[in-house]
Amino acid sequence: MPIAPRIEAPKGYGSSGSIRSALERLNRAVNLPLLLSLLLLTAYGLLIVYSAILNRGDFSFSRQIMGVIVGLVLMVLLWRFDYHRLANWVVPLLVIDFILIISPLFPIIGVNVNGASSWIKIFGQQIQPAEPAKIISIVVMAALVSRYRGKLDSAKDYLKCLAVLLALMVAIMLQPDMGTAMVFFAFGMTIFLVGGTNWRFLVITLVVIVAAVALLFFIDPILDKAVGHDVLIKQYQKDRLLVFMDESIDPAGIGYNLKHAKIAIGSGGVFGKGLFEGTQQGLGFLPEAPTDFIFCVLAEELGFMGCMGLLAIYAALIGSSFYIAFKSDDHFGTYVIMGIIGMWAFQIMENIGMTCGLMPITGIPLPFISYGSSFMLTNFMALGMIFSVWSHRSIQKGL
Fold it and tell me: What is the average per-residue pLDDT within 30-44?
């Protein structure tokens, strides 16, 4: 009787080696700590936004959900795209960037909201084009600085890169949108810093900007008096700085926002009043609760522990991004991620700081938490770029 041939399983089949190999492939494509941070932040943000807009007809939770869905699609597309190719697209990206930034100034599509022309309306949908422009600007600045391979010590070369950044900031301030211009400056300086820029150039830049701002405040009242209206600095911007310097100024007027923001945060205590139980937002005392002052809603309803939980997730997000920047196989990828980290870090610091009276009040939202589909798209695009750097790194860099 013939003996049937013995069939052996492929080498490694069903063994710990195949499992390890599968996990290595998965880890190469997906940075799990970053993905987990994303899921936690998105869920946390949707929960707090839902509470903040509860019983408010001027906000749409379905629009926020749609922003998350579209953001996820954009993230996956950027994730799959090889970021290396963008380093050679500086000129077309810069053209697109400027068109996006100045588009709210165009007739017909431009929309004025709260005294600022920062929005456009297309097919019945309002979009803030400066949001996606942040990611394009980070890519452009990273591509320019990466050409010097970690040593930007020529004043001429530095001024070329700085001129691009300042041109983008001036275009933003024409809207006017000082808060977004500050975000551009934050991620620009971050890229310069990690890009090996001579520290003297950075110090001189900061001194010149401080001097320019001081001069601006000196000549502004002279110009306003001569022309008869605000020319350079708007009255609401002056009011915010006055309140920052002295919180007791006009608590029923220009100091109202900060007063009730601090009441909301302080009343939350350790564990908060409970989800959907916030009174400052629920009774209408807290202005712009779903957007600029969303942190106050979180603090009042979930208390100190809820705030610490959010900061812990932010730490995981930024820590994972730092790790991926370290694992990048080129300067360009590292600078893109560091620019994104600079953007997130400044927005988190400014948004939380302004609600506590530690920073001037601006219109800077809180990443992944504040209401706004345009802002949500920006954050998911940023994550798509980071995931792209992770998944397209060289094998020699390891896991």
Answer: 93
User: Number of folded domains in the chain?
Assistant: 1
Report, as an integer, the average pLDDT of 329-352: 95
Q: Which three-class secondary structure state does DSSP give residue 58?
A: coil
The pLDDT of residue 399: 47
Q: Tokens for 59, please give them.
A: 């906000």
Dihedral angle, C-alpha 191, 197, 200, 201, nearest 10 °: -70
Contact 264, 300 (CB under 8 A): yes
Domain with 307, as residue range(s), is: 40-197+234-393
Place of tokens 């007791």: 248
For 27, the enclosing helix (H) or strand (E) is helix 16-29
Q: Residue 187: is its pLDDT beyond 80?
A: yes
Residue 82 lies in a domain: yes
- Give a yes or no: residue 124 inside a domain: yes
Q: Which long-range contacts (CB under 8 A, 24 or more apart) does 372-376 make?
A: 372/64, 372/67, 372/128, 372/291, 373/63, 373/64, 373/66, 373/67, 373/70, 374/67, 374/127, 374/128, 374/129, 374/131, 374/132, 375/128, 375/131, 376/64, 376/67, 376/68, 376/71
Record the tokens describing residue 227, joined without a space: 């022309």
Entry pTM: 0.89
Q: Which two tokens stand for residue 282?
A: 């629920």
Do 105 and 117 meet the contact criterion of CB atoms below 8 Å apart?
yes
